[in-house]
Every structure is written in C-alpha cells, then in structure tokens.
Amino acid sequence: MKARKRMVKPVPLESILSRALQRANIDINPDLFKLWTRWPDLVGPTIAENAKPAVIKKGMLIVHVTSTPWIQQLQYLKEDIIEKLNRELGEERIEDVRFKIGPIDSAD
Length: 108
Known about the structure:
Shape: elongated
CATH superfamily of the domain at 28-101: DnaA, N-terminal domain
Strand content: 15-25%
Structural class: alpha+beta
Order of helices and strands: HHHEEHE
Largest sheet: 3 strands, mixed
CATH class of the domain at 28-101: Alpha Beta
CATH architecture of the domain at 28-101: 2-Layer Sandwich
Mean pLDDT: 83
Distance between the termini: 41 Å
Oligomer: single chain
Number of strands: 3
Radius of gyration: 17 Å
C-alpha cells in the first residue's frame, strides 16, 4: 500500500475538486458551480425561480429563463447582475450575459 503525502497546509476544497475533475476528464466549470450554488443569494429568490445559469463560455454567461417577459425584465438588470457575479467570483470573469428560454430545474 502506497503512503499518502502529508499536506503542509490546508488546501481549499475547490482546488482539490478541480484537480480531481481534471484528472478524471470531467468538464465541470468551477465558476459555474460557484454561481449555481450562490445564484439565489446573488439575484434574489424571485429571479432565481425564473432564471438559472447554464454555461460560461469565453466570458459570456448563458442564463436559461422561463419566459420572454422574464428575458425582457432581466435585460434591464443585466449590468447589475454582471457586477454581482464578478464580485462573487473575485475577478472580472463575466463580460456579458445572454438570456434565453431554457430548462429551469425547480428541484433546488
């Protein structure tokens, strides 16, 4: 049995999971996971019931929304949402948000 290396200092769970997912060739974006889990706190419960982050690609966050009226409403809030998301991520990762009608998992 091979002995494990002893850690010098505690390591954030996010970095451990990220390395494990990379080694397993599982493509999960840790930023999306963070936004997914914090989404209701960042945008509020009413928006969270009608819109969910779906994917981040090259600074663009795609958000699935329940209806066209919600897309229109969220367009007015887009800059505020981008600011809150980037503050949560600790850097300017989200440059734009695109809202489109898509599946919303209501089991959260």
